[in-house]
Design a protein that fits this description.
With 212 residues, this protein is of the alpha+beta class. The protein is 15% helix and 32% strand. It has one domain. Bound molecules: zinc ion.
Amino acid sequence: MNDLSKALRDPARAVYDFTIPATQPWSGSLRRGQVLRIVDLEGQQAVDTLFYNAADFSERYSAQDTLCAQNGAYVTTGTRILSNEGRTMLTVIGDTCGAHDTSAGACSCEANTVRFGHHTRYMHACRENFLVEVAKHGMGKRDIVGNINFFMNVPVEPDGRLAIVDGVSKPGDYVELRAEMDVLCVISNCPQINNPCNGFNPTPVRVLIWDA
Ligand SMILES: [Zn+2]
């Protein structure tokens, strides 16, 4: 980021500024050219995120196309967020954390029971958050696809294994994305407490939007 872009993204000049409470969902629209900043206010907080073309929700984020196009396993500055139609939806233009996962998917009650035991069946999970939030836009289960996990640390081991390990994001770390088309952004501020993706303590995150 150069100094000019920093100055333009003074929080006092944001057209939208909202703190998503711990464990809760959120959605918001971005017009082409607007910039979204997601701030991990207290650090080590996974922010499960989906994107849809605002004009046609059947075009949506594609983790496979995004990773394929950049020849890399993580999302960070310079990553083009691609849709299932191969078009650039957003570009990551700032990242103080360094790497974000888009391989491990979102937590669900079903996955919790397999990983952590049947007693976790009734714990709140990202999939429930996503269902609640996409329903506000006329979508349902079939519209929830593989997501980005901002601030979630999922190193790919030399043998190809994935593991969710302690997050590396510090309080105040943020990621910035510029919309390259009009998009709907849907977030689950992850409520998981059975693995380290939220430091075993889900916390609030802040979303800000600036005009182009
Ligand atoms: Zn989750």
